[in-house]
Amino acid sequence: MDRMLYVAMSGAKQAMEQQASVANNMANVSTPGFRAQVNSFRAVPVVGGDEPSTRAFVVATTPGADFSPGPLTQTGRDLDVAVHGDGWLVVQTSDGGEAYTRVGNLQVGADGQLLTMGARPVVGEGGALVLPPGAKVQIASNGAITARGAGDPLVGVAEVGRLKLVNPPTTDLVRGDDGLFRMRDGLPPAEADAAVTVASGVVEGSNVNPVEAMVSMIAQARSFEMQMKSMQTANENAQSANKLLAYG
């Protein structure tokens, strides 16, 4: 009975964790550039002494992410960019390091620095990106940023910086609690990749499929109920066995 309880308990625990992951994905259906979280599980045999392994329990592996691209929405806004295919924008974290995101709805801070909507500084190939106040900004497909002030000629516009676009292997990336991706511990920051391009006036949406997420949420709820039923059955069997022993 103790094995049955342990197997059911481990299954219920993982079903709850998967439910939380699916709920987080559902909550970010409308979040630009969001990458759906994917949880993986594996079966581990229950080994006890010299007895054969007739049961297995569930353990979770390291959570991953679905890196497939999300839908693109035309906005016509000069500071909106979306990465074509594989690749990432680079932002600066609070500790001065680098993190990677697909969120491309950018803004200009009070000091002229280019920021994400989450107020994280966008990193350029030469460092921080600072734009002239009141300038009309254009972002080319290679990430080059030009700014033209009021009254400036249409030709000979100066380049003020270039977005740092990277494309590290997805196996080298881990998602942080803030939703940003970083290189795994021990790996250096990703180098700029000239093959990565962006589209201006476009925002990439979340790659979460709301219908699939809803179906998964229902399936996980049913799985949790099944595990709880197994625990209840194990308890009832234990009580019946105790009665037999008491009156045997």
UniProtKB/TrEMBL annotation:
Subcellular localization, as worded in the UniProt entry: Bacterial flagellum basal body
Domain Flagellar hook protein FlgE/F/G-like D1 residue range list: 82-147
UniProt keyword annotation of ATP-binding present: no
Broad class of the protein's primary localization: other
PROSITE patterns reported for this sequence: FLAGELLA_BB_ROD
InterPro entries: Flag_bb_rod_N, Flagellar_basal_body_rod_CS, Flagellar_FlgE/F/G, Flg_bb/hook_C_dom, FlgE/F/G-like, FlgF, LlgE_F_G-like_D1
One protein family per Pfam: LlgE_F_G_D1
Boundaries of every Flagellar basal body rod protein N-terminal domain copy: 5-35
Domain Flagellar basal-body/hook protein C-terminal per the UniProt entry, residue ranges: 200-244
Domain of life of the source: Bacteria
Keyword ATP-binding recorded: no
Keyword terms: Bacterial flagellum, Cell projection, Cilium, Flagellum
Family membership: Belongs to the flagella basal body rod proteins family.
Quaternary organization: The basal body constitutes a major portion of the flagellar organelle and consists of five rings (E,L,P,S, and M) mounted on a central rod. The rod consists of about 26 subunits of FlgG in the distal portion, and FlgB, FlgC and FlgF are thought to build up the proximal portion of the rod with about 6 subunits each.
Protein name as catalogued: Flagellar basal-body rod protein FlgF
Species name: Variovorax soli
